[in-house]
Write a structure and sequence with these properties.
By secondary structure, this protein is of the alpha/beta class. It contains 20 helices and 23 strands.
């Protein structure tokens, strides 16, 4: 069943770091409006904004204190309405972040729960009686430490699987769910195109809550042990779809981890809970229960295998949303390109290999110009709360401060949150004031302005990728065609066919050294090449280092 979002290109904005219109060092909604034409020229149809609701920003806006208000740092509700209207004029859709596993401890629901834990709002949360010297469960929060915190002014404790300022909402309570649906529909009535749905797999807990086998010296266990046991999330998700998104034909994309293979049609099939879900197969590769310091780097062959596994798993069940990076991850070019090989050619190769996969491509701000990780020299420069926690974990495991810092530099979420690099002017053209987070010093060589006028730039390459996806001659194949891997066993080579009414071959030489491929049939046309020419002899092509080709066969 074809849907309006299948052929779209999406773009994620981290509002705090995108563009500052008033010089206070923080990006804002009027700044996004100022840059809509830039996004439109890039070929973007759907724009997802990370949270800009009212928030104390304990976790950068993922702790919401009022779902009906825009945080004054980012602008006003009028600004938001204007953004939706301006986007519509350009045939673009605005998505907001839906953060409903938890709210902020400054939300009025939580304040009322503190006042009367046994009343209506106490039942909006997971509250347990406090027992001296014993926690209700031994779960470790995603940000480290126990998931249980004392409920101020009471003899109870509340559950938070993220930051202690993010109490979990009790989805078992129908009254809470009604409040959530009311808010979603309020936004959709404003003309929002839909939502990206945050951390949604956490809303279903395995009841009754109980302990699991500890997995670190602290005697605690990862929350994921509980999530593996939890059953029945579909009842909540199906209800939410029917009461909200479905009525508006809205686009919804889930941040989904740990789904079971047999559940895929339920999640993103024709009547799925969501329109799409992100592919995190590459993102989670090499992760370790012990912490970031123990993570295994991803090789080109690993990356290829991760992509193809996801594609095979989904097949034609539905549409994945494909990412190279987002606000929670380091920059993709520093993660997926072998160390020391990050260059113009390799950045373009990674872009093409990801963009041409079956699914909806999501570009994260700055990805289209090849922004890179931020160099750091001290933990004091780090803003990201999870990176600061992982630094302590690495030190406790016996790493030296230098080694621990290297680990943080590789994975810190600050890497993706540094201000967008618009130009080589002061503060990368992001703000006239002092930016809230350090600007990457390489902005003088990597910025939008210089790449707009350079035909050979990463930005221009992304524009060409978008143009192929939207070209009426190839759209049916790129959007709906099947994906068939080829030469899978070839080391450091990633190649696949997209087959629909046409056949396209996407092939990337994922290394610095040259290598050869022999085509089964001659190609008709070169749609894209990150080098000036193709070195070939009859049916054999000698690929240069990090060369990528999109060929019509």
């Amino acid at each position: 069943m074809k849907k309006w979002w299948h052929d779209k290109v999406a773009y994620q904005i981290y509002p705090k770091s995108f563009y500052d219109s008033n010089g206070d060092g923080i990006g804002d909604i009027p700044g996004i409006i100022d840059k809509l034409d830039y996004l439109h020229d890039l070929g973007v149809d759907i724009v997802w904004l990370s949270p800009c609701y009212q928030s104390p920003l304990a976790d950068q806006g993922y702790d919401i204190s009022d779902y009906y208000k825009i945080d004054p740092r980012f602008g006003t509700m009028e600004d938001m309405e204007r953004l939706i209207a301006e986007a519509k004029k350009r045939n673009m859709y605005i998505l907001m972040d839906l953060v409903v596993n938890h709210c902020s401890d400054e939300h009025e629901w939580f304040r009322k729960a503190c006042e009367d834990p046994d009343g209506k709002y106490g039942r909006f949360f997971y509250l347990r009686d406090k027992e001296e010297g014993k926690l209700p469960t031994n779960w470790r929060s995603y940000f480290g430490g126990s998931v249980w915190e004392d409920l101020p002014g009471t003899d109870k404790q509340y559950l938070h699987v993220f930051h202690k300022k993010q109490p979990d909402l009790n989805w078992e309570n129908p009254e809470l769910r009604e409040e959530v649906y009311k808010n979603i529909n309020w936004w959709l009535d404003k003309g929002l195109g839909g939502f990206r749905i945050d951390a949604i797999m956490n809303i279903k807990k395995a009841l009754p809550l109980h302990d699991y086998e500890p997995d670190r010296e602290d005697g605690l266990c990862s929350v994921s042990a509980m999530l593996q046991e939890a059953r029945g999330i579909g009842e909540f998700l199906g209800e939410m779809r029917d009461r909200t998104f479905k009525k508006y034909d809205a686009f919804s994309v889930g941040e989904v981890f740990n789904e079971k293979p047999e559940e895929l049609p339920d999640f993103i099939g024709d009547n799925g809970y969501f329109s799409s879900m992100f592919d995190f197969n590459e993102t989670i590769f090499g992760g370790s229960e012990k912490g970031w310091y123990d993570a295994k780097p991803i090789t080109p062959d690993d990356y290829k295998r991760c992509c193809f596994e996801s594609q095979k798993r989904i097949g034609e069940i539905g549409f994945l949303s494909n990412i190279i990076e987002n606000h929670d991850e380091p920059r993709g070019v520093c993660r997926y390109i072998p160390e020391g090989d990050c260059c113009l050619e390799s950045k373009k190769m990674l872009a093409a290999l990801n963009f041409m996969l079956r699914g909806i491509p999501f570009i994260y701000q700055g990805q289209e110009i090849g922004m890179e990780n931020l160099p750091i020299s001290s933990i004091d420069e780090v803003d990201d709360i999870s990176a600061r926690d992982e630094y302590k974990v690495a030190l406790a495991a016996g790493l030296s401060p230098e080694e621990a810092l290297r680990t943080i530099a590789r994975f810190s979420r600050d890497n993706a949150r540094t201000p967008m690099q618009w130009s080589d002017e002061e503060n990368a053209g992001f703000s006239a004031g002092k930016p809230w987070l350090k600007v990457n010093p390489n902005y003088s060589s990597i910025n939008v302005e210089s790449q707009l006028s350079d035909e050979n730039s990463v930005l221009q390459f992304y524009k060409k990728l978008v143009a192929i996806r939207k070209d009426p001659a190839y759209k049916e194949t790129v959007v709906y065609g099947i994906l068939e891997p080829v030469w899978e066993e070839k080391h450091n080579l990633m190649a696949y066919y997209r087959k629909g009414d046409k056949t396209l071959l996407v092939v990337g030489n994922y290394q610095r050294g040259e290598q050869e491929i022999t085509l089964e049939t001659a190609y008709r046309k070169v749609l894209l090449n990150n080098y000036k020419d193709i070195v070939q002899e009859k049916g054999t092509i000698r690929l240069q280092g990090y060369q990528v080709l999109i060929l019509e066969m």
